[in-house]
Design a protein that fits this description.
single chain; alpha+beta; eight-stranded mixed sheet; 14 helices; 8 strands
């Protein structure tokens, strides 16, 4: 049997070593027959590569023992390949899923082999539509077809490889036609929506090589993104500096222009296209800093209860709410910034729990509460112990709930932030919960101090009791004032610094 033909780069300026098997055309009983006329019920349905159900398909198989033919898969016995009608080329995605390509008809599909005749009939239908509409198709195009089992409908989209986009033979309204596309603010922004779909198609069906200039451009994009991240805290690039370095290394090691390199480049380009969509790339209102809001929203409200509780939590919720708001501007989450935030809050909860577990003064308070010298000392000591236990409980609960939060992807972070964001008060309620372990540590310390100060005070003597209680009150007010001064001193404005950041 002749060696498989591997060059599938019709119209592409790059050679290919794609792992595809081309079988000789096998005459079919229906070859040469005129396709039946389409009924009025037949319908072509626009779709996008994102609507491909390849990751949702379910199948159950039953392994069994079979007799192995002599010399199977060796040079001893080269068996004939499976029957593939009309010269279809069977290719394999690096993830393992097979798909088929008809170079003559420029068809790409991942439906079973028995749909071959239906695919050809639908291809002729689209050829007739192109002719009737007097449309000139791009020089380097292909069409994805996915007919249903009855042949009444066929999902489709065209691919323009020269311009890296997808298109259809009709005007498409994504909202009304159930086409999975993001809403846009301009025709220019739609370019990146369609470009993302193009690269998803190349990722799912990587039988074509990618021109070297697009690979070089991708390396330049990640190099610039890496520099932007290292020199600014407000960079909008969606990857971390470490990720950029690793992706650049991977891209530079790609030598063969085969299905593996196409798959890698396509997946990375898809992410870049989505990033450019979110940042309004090329528009006058481009988002060049991640704190820039572009969508209108109702102002954040604050209830009287939340306002009353904030001072009791030493202003800690404001810090967490501000960071979550900054990390979810226009409901866009950045994976690297969420992971940095998660590391910070997890560390805070762990330290709060550690303080409660190791503090000797808590033990003193517990013993004194059980063996009181006077009612005031017993009361303060008991409160200190209760607040310590409450800090441990809330910290442990949050640590258990957020285990692994420092590994969330951008999608996981966006879903979680959407769930915890209040419709009216946004991140204020959840920020107060985040602040509880640390705030309870402070309050436990306050009451422990009051306990120590009043341990020698005899309440039966008002002369002695009044100065001690006043001193305790003054100490508590001093703590509030000190905390406010320190918080104001560390309220750093994280505005974009450009290239003036230093380690």
């Amino acid at each position: 049997m002749p060696a498989p033909t591997v060059n599938l780069h019709s119209g592409c300026d790059e050679p290919s070593t794609s792992r595809c098997m081309v079988f000789p055309a096998i005459p079919s009983a229906e070859v040469g027959e005129k396709p039946p006329a389409y009924s009025e019920a037949a319908k072509a349905i626009p779709m996008t590569p994102s609507q491909n159900d390849r990751y949702e398909r379910q199948a159950l198989v039953t392994p069994e023992f079979i007799t192995i033919p002599r010399g199977l898969y060796s040079s001893v016995s080269l068996s004939e390949p499976p029957c593939v009608v009309d010269g279809w080329t069977v290719c394999f995605n690096p993830e393992g899923s097979p798909y088929r390509v008809n170079r003559a008809k420029r068809i790409v599909t991942d439906v079973p082999t028995e749909y071959s005749d239906a695919l050809i009939r639908w291809a002729k239908y689209f050829e007739a539509q192109v002719k009737a509409l007097d449309i000139t198709l791009p020089n380097d195009y292909e069409i994805y077809l996915s007919p249903d089992a009855e042949g009444k409908t066929c999902k489709y989209y065209y691919v323009d490889h020269l311009n890296q986009t997808v298109f259809w033979l009709e005007d498409v309204d994504p909202f009304r036609q159930d086409v999975e596309l993001l809403p846009v603010t301009s025709v220019g922004q739609m370019k990146f929506v369609l470009q993302e779909q193009y690269w998803k198609h190349c990722e799912y069906f990587p039988h074509r090589g990618v021109p070297r200039k697009l690979k070089r451009e991708l390396i330049n994009i990640f190099t610039h993104g890496n520099a932007d991240i290292l020199t600014s805290t407000m960079s909008t690039f969606p990857y971390s500096a470490g990720e950029c370095v690793r992706y650049i290394q991977i891209l530079r090691t790609l030598v063969d222009n085969n299905e593996y390199s196409t798959w890698i480049i396509a997946r990375l380009w898809s992410g870049v296209a989505r990033h450019r969509y979110h940042t309004f790339h090329g528009e006058d209102y481009a988002r060049i800093s991640r704190d820039q809001q572009r969508y209108e929203k109702a102002p954040t409200r604050t209830s009287a209860a939340l306002a009353a509780f904030k001072p009791l939590l030493f202003g800690i919720p404001d810090k967490w709410a501000e960071e979550m708001t900054l990390g979810f501007v226009d409901e866009i989450a950045f994976g690297k910034h969420w992971r940095e935030f998660a590391i910070t809050v997890l560390k805070d909860w762990k330290e709060s729990s550690k303080v409660m577990l190791t503090s000797e003064t808590r033990r003193i308070g517990g013993v004194t509460a059980l063996r009181p010298t006077n009612p005031a000392s017993a009361c303060f000591g008991s409160l200190s112990v209760v607040l310590s236990l409450a800090s441990l409980a809330t910290g442990g609960m949050l640590l258990q709930r957020y285990a692994g939060a420092d590994t969330y992807t951008a999608l996981m972070a966006a879903e979680h932030l959407t769930q915890i964001k209040h419709p009216k008060y946004e991140f204020q309620p959840i920020a107060m919960l985040y602040a509880l372990p640390r705030a309870l540590v402070f309050w436990s310390g306050v009451f422990q101090t009051a306990h120590v100060l009043t341990i020698f005070v005899d309440l039966r003597s008002m002369i002695i009791q009044t100065p001690a209680m006043a001193l305790t009150l003054l100490f508590m007010l001093g703590l509030f004032k000190t905390n406010r001064i320190i918080r104001h001193g560390f309220a750093v404005n994280v505005a974009r610094v450009g290239g003036q950041l230093s380690e």
